[in-house]
Amino acid sequence: MGAVCCRPTPIDFDGEVNLFHFVLLRCVGKGAFGKVRVVQHKQTRELYALKYINKAKCVKMKAVPNVIQERRLLEEIDHPYIVNLRYAFQDDENCFFVLDLMLGGDLRFHLERLGAMPEETVRFYMAQLSSGLAYLHELGIMHRDLKPDNILLDERGNAHLTDFNIAVHFGERKLTGVAGSMAYMAPEILTKRGYTYYIDWWSLGVCAYELIFGRRPFRGRSNSDLTYSISKDPLKWPEDAEKKCSRNGMQVIKGLLERDTTKRFGCKPGGEGYQELRRHPWFKPIDWDTLESKEQIPPFIPDAKKANFDASHELEELLLEDNPLKAKARKANQDNLSAEMRQMEEQFTSYDFKKMQRRSYYPHNQHLISTATATSSGLASSRPGTPANDLRVENGIGIVSNGHGDLHNGEETLGEKEIMRVDKIAAMKEYS
What we know:
Transferase(Phosphotransferase), domain 1; 13 helices; 15 strands; G protein-coupled receptor binding
């Protein structure tokens, strides 16, 4: 099932990219500001993921800087284990990201169905993700929201980082804004001592622990309890830990979850931390020379016969959508735009990976992040909700929600939408 964007006049593939260039296929994800669809380029027949964000909702939620920031960062990035931007454009109603298509689902989707994953599988993901993180850090970018929801599998089972709407460039000066998903935040974020890219390695450690053992290393009945646990509690292992994970594996996880950033794995400057991690005995089975070429066969291959996402998004699109997405010619008169709409019009620029060189906007985009807040669900995330104690904030109001009003792996949850004030008041911004 799908809809075809069509118009009577021929399509100009040599001109600026637009929605007329694509066939719209199934809806695979949904967020506060828009949806994610599978699309096919009419000329090349290549399949992509189309993430589109409604401009009016974006302005209402004061999230314009986030969208522009993500758009600019993605133009700079190109790596085999990152969901890369291929095209960007806008029409009068939406901003569009055309990204690498990941049909294998996100790791939260698989974790909820499997309960936990074999150590061999997690080690493979950690190798791929550490390669992606090292690449970002070399560019001077920290992700700030690494979690299973933001790790997508391709159809072969390779892991990719996605969701860059609170990612930022970093320099010598440490950041202090509280940003990310609370359960995966490093202690230096929560204690507001200032932080840099080291936080991504901590989040990777939380992911590794959760994927192997089916629970997070630090938990709490409230946000204050969780903050204390992350900042103070000793790292504890499940009773059956040695049955699920080797000592070398636990050593790597412990090294990533080191509160002292001078000792945390991955954090030595100049890329030496990443090289040290690669040399650890746990990664001995990994052939690093062929890793980035994706020659290795992943230990877990998603079932291609099943939808690796929540199929209710497509049903909702068919039954409830009163303004379905379709290609439209742009209005000629743009004189009456609000300041925010004009900012998007001018700064959410078109991009075509086949015609344009990737470039960095740093440091000119740094002013955008002064009011940036919150995070998104992943590119093709199958759930609009978030796990328990998953506070997503940046210098503003954080909305804590478990997405379904239930327990997550036996953890106590807060109310479905309990609002907590963090630092100065600012608007919560969430988009897909």
